[in-house]
Write a structure and sequence with these properties.
heterodimer; A: 317 residues; alpha/beta; six-stranded mixed beta sheet; four-stranded antiparallel beta sheet; 11 helices; elongated; B: 570 residues; six-stranded antiparallel beta sheet
């Protein structure tokens, strides 16, 4: 475990899961730290399987999983510290939103008063107080998503596993939920998210786990992952007052592959094999009077990294 | 920890009870549970009507008759004798039938003609018993019923032909095994037999008489059933009613009030040849009681395919009642042909009907399928609804969840089926007078029986519930195991002793408070379905059901721990 104990990590050791002859995930080794971790990959890449393995809903064909040292096959212990908002859009029949959360807490052994307090607090956090007394069957997709989040959050777990948690939410609700996840992560929680909306994942993730066809193709902080992909040149967007001069200077470097001037004549996109050399040259240009407004990587977002790793065909947007 | 588990179990029960009791699919279970209540309500209406009719017949009769008067009517009496005994009947029907049979029974006594054949060396059946004798043999039919020697008497004369029967209470009849029977040497014109069949009419049986020169006469004959419970007695070609008796004896020493019949057959022989042997059919269900050879045709002579001439026979039917017993007397040709004395609906008698409904409908169908609907859906229904993950994501041991769900199912089914059972008992007993009801409930073990029915109902829910819960957990398609359980329970009486114990019905049958007698003429194998030849004691039966249930639940708990949520493959 590279010196890290499983007590403060979510650990997968050589985990494989097969559904009959169909591969779910294969030979997964992970050690997930606190913070927001995003599972990224197209449909069928193994995101939900990984989450179901983590929560004991399915059992690994091979390998070992520990969630903060808990065995997922012991739900009575695991779900005291873990809340899981699944993609399954079915609910026990006849329950209101409040009863759904309240019953979940009672199942865990909370007394009635505590369960009521915790349920209302969670419902408030997902902003669903007005709809809570209504039957879940009458909820919209977004409301059902939020009540599932409330269920996952209600007992203040240290680990939040959220399968496509932003699906069906309007932009305002989406922003609220992202803030909620960030706040949980800031409190030291493990927030595991799977999502197809890559730019949001990009914005909120402390680290990503990229999956393709049941395999983990990369994991870690997004910038670190990007830097490890040497076969693809770095793309950097520079905003400055004299883009043509800067372009000429850059082309003198043997590491520069391509330079193109932005159409507004106030910037240029540079492809280089050596980002460190590039930044040194930027410093020299600035000292020589080029006014540089901003320098920003143009391809260290999740989408680009994913594209580099698994090819154009599997990129999800 | 125990407190936490109980709190969790209570939470599961609360959630499941609501679903089970108010689910739409629960409607079918309510209908199943309430069907017997409707049945007994209808029965109460009919009983009330019948009782009124009996009282009206008793009131309108010319004479006030007693039960003893009704018992005094015997077959062979003339209609004048019956009227002298019971008065003019309040209800009378008459009609004419064109028939071949002679209705009168053969006369009692000796002095008839012919040479009776000594069959004693061939006797292989206890077919005749003295009334009130208890016996352990299978009797005439293998089910413990036999002719009454009091009615049959040792000798009969049919159409002038003498017949002698074997001595009662010992081997005195022959069932066909294809055996040859020696005949007294001589030249005869006719072979007369008194015989019958058991378990329904037996058709196309070969009777062969061998002559001393090696030649033979073979006759093909059908035989009617000896029991009045089988329709059309004595109506096979070449057959006549020889002796009609109002009852038969049972191995318990009681009289079974089913009419019993003995039939006469006559076969024309080659009078030029000397007889040697009689060969009977190789058929266990053909019974011969007496045989006589005659030199002159004195009986109804038939050839190989002979048919007696058709005659118009006047029939009458009288109905009498003492208010609590109805007597139906049928006359043919002015003589009592059959008697049916039926006791009015009484609580002890009707309790047998109640027991039959309980055992054969309520226990084996209503509770069985009700438990199937409830318990199988506790897990499998939620997998199909894709909502089981709600429970699996809670911090609760899977085994505790299973126990909670099982107890919820048990509580729900007990509420439904025990309530229905109590209602059935109330409706059933309410049709009788308060005095009869009190007598039955407080002095004739009625209350104990009611408690036993309620207990058996609850135990059935427990036993079947455990099996169906297991089926819902262990199998993706639980319908097949459910069908297997149904078959297993149905064939339980025929299983070896050890295998019987791995079922629910084996123990429940032992706890049922009222034995259901097999209908007369029921084959021994089928009687096993009704009776319980090897009942176990109540404590063993209760422990058996509980033990089997715990064993099944334990196996289920091992599986539920490993159960995965994978809705897409369901």
């Amino acid at each position: 475990m590279n010196g890290v104990t499983s007590k403060d990590r979510i650990v997968f050791e050589d985990v494989s899961k097969f559904y009959g002859e169909i591969l779910g995930v294969n030979r997964v080794n992970l050690s997930i730290p606190p913070g927001v971790t995003s599972l990224v990959g197209p449909n069928g890449s193994g995101k939900t399987t990984l989450m179901n393995l983590m929560t004991g809903l399915v059992r690994p064909t091979r390998g070992l999983i520990r969630v903060l040292n808990h065995d997922p096959s012991e739900p009575e212990k695991l779900f005291k510290i873990l809340g899981y908002s699944t993609q399954f859009d079915s609910f026990p029949k006849g329950l209101t939103g409040f009863q759904f959360v309240y019953s979940y807490l009672r199942l865990g052994g909370s007394d009635s008063q505590t369960a009521q307090q915790l349920a209302w607090r969670a419902i408030e956090r997902v902003n669903l107080v007005d709809a809570a007394p209504r039957n879940v069957a009458a909820y919209s997709k977004g409301m059902r998503q939020r009540i599932r989040l409330a269920q996952a959050l209600c007992h203040n777990p240290r680990v939040l596993v959220l399968d496509e948690p932003l699906n069906g939410l309007d932009p305002l609700a989406r922003a609220e939920m992202i803030a909620l996840f960030r706040a949980a992560a800031a409190d030291g929680c493990f927030v595991i998210i799977s999502s197809h909306i890559l730019h949001e994942v990009d914005a909120i993730s402390d680290q990503v786990i990229l999956l393709s066809n049941g395999y983990v193709v990369a994991e870690g902080q997004i910038h670190s992952v990007r830097n490890e992909i040497h076969e693809h040149p770095a793309q950097i967007l520079v905003r400055c007052n004299r883009p043509r001069d800067l372009a000429a200077r850059m082309m003198e470097s043997e590491h520069t592959i391509e330079v193109s001037i932005h159409h507004d004549e106030h910037g240029l996109l540079i492809k280089t094999r050596d980002a460190d050399q590039f930044y040194l040259m930027m410093n020299q240009a600035a000292m020589n009077g080029v006014e540089i407004e901003s320098v920003a990587p143009a391809d260290d977002d999740v989408n680009s990294v994913y594209e580099y790793l698994v090819g154009n065909d599997e990129v999800v947007r | 920890m125990t407190n936490l588990w109980w709190a969790q179990i209570r939470s599961v029960i609360r959630l499941e009870m609501k679903k089970t009791l108010f689910a739409r699919r629960g409607l079918r279970i309510y209908v199943l549970a309430l069907l017997p209540v409707l049945l007994f309500t209808a029965h109460a209406v009919i009983v009330s009507h019948e009782r009124g009719r009996s009282l009206a017949i008793a009131r309108e009769g010319e004479k006030k008759v007693t039960y003893q008067d009704l018992l005094a009517v015997k077959t062979g009496m003339t209609n004048k004798e019956v009227i002298a005994l019971l008065g003019k009947p309040p209800e009378r029907f008459h009609w004419t039938e064109r028939t071949t049979r002679r209705v009168a029974s053969a006369a009692i006594g000796t002095g008839g003609s012919g040479t009776p054949v000594n069959l004693s060396t061939a006797y292989n059946l206890h077919s005749i018993y003295t009334d009130s004798t208890t016996y352990n043999t299978g009797g005439l039919d293998g089910a413990g019923y036999a002719y009454s020697s009091n009615l049959l008497t040792p000798n009969r004369i049919l159409n002038g032909v003498q017949f002698n029967f074997g001595l009662a209470n010992q081997l005195d009849g022959i069932h066909g095994t294809g055996q040859p029977i020696s005949l007294p040497a001589g030249q005869f014109t006719t072979l007369h037999l008194l015989a019958a069949s058991v378990y329904g009419p037996v058709l196309g049986q070969a009777i062969t008489v061998t002559y001393t020169d090696g030649s033979a006469s073979t006759f093909t004959q059908n035989f009617s059933d000896w029991c009045g419970c089988v329709p059309n007695p004595g109506e096979q070609p070449g057959e006549s009613l020889a002796v009609v008796m109002p009852y038969r004896d049972s191995r318990q020493g009681t009289q079974d009030r089913q009419a019993s019949y003995l039939y006469g057959y006559a076969f024309a022989l080659n009078r030029a040849k000397t007889v040697q042997n009689l060969t009977l059919p190789d058929n266990r269900n053909v019974i011969i009681l007496a045989a006589t050879l005659t030199k002159h045709s004195q009986g109804t002579i038939v050839g190989n395919s002979g048919q007696a001439p058709l005659v118009d026979v006047p029939h009458e039917s009288y109905t009498y009642s003492d208010g609590s017993h109805d007597l139906y007397v049928s006359f043919a040709d002015g003589q009592v042909d059959s008697i049916n004395l039926r006791e009015s609906f009484t609580l002890p008698n009707e309790s047998v009907a109640f027991a039959a409904v309980f055992q054969f409908f309520y226990l084996r169908l209503a509770i069985f399928f009700g438990c199937l609907g409830v318990f199988m859906n506790l897990f499998r229904g939620e997998v199909l609804d894709k909502s089981l993950h709600f429970y699996f994501l809670a911090p609760i041991r899977r085994e505790i969840l299973m126990v909670g769900k099982f107890l919820a199912g048990l509580l729900a089914t007990c509420i439904i089926f025990v309530s229905s059972e109590v209602l059935q008992i109330i409706v059933f007993t309410s049709q009788f007078s308060p005095n009869a009801r009190d007598l039955y409930l407080y002095q004739n073990h009625g209350l104990e029986q009611a408690a036993a029915y309620v207990g058996v109902t609850a135990l059935a829910c427990l036993g079947y519930g455990a099996f169906f819960l297991a089926a819902g957990i262990l199998f993706r398609n639980p319908i097949l195991p459910a069908a297997a359980i149904l078959v297993w329970e149905a064939v339980n009486p025929f299983l070896p002793a050890l295998l019987k114990k791995f079922s629910v019905i084996y123990y429940l049958k032992s706890l049922c408070p009222v034995d259901i007698p097999s209908p007369p003429g029921t084959p021994a194998l089928l009687s096993l379905l009704v009776s319980n030849p090897e009942p176990v004691s109540a404590p063993v039966a209760i422990l058996g059901v509980v033990g089997v249930s715990i064993l099944v639940l334990y196996v289920s708990s091992l599986q539920v721990r490993r159960m995965e949520i994978n809705y897409t493959t369901e």
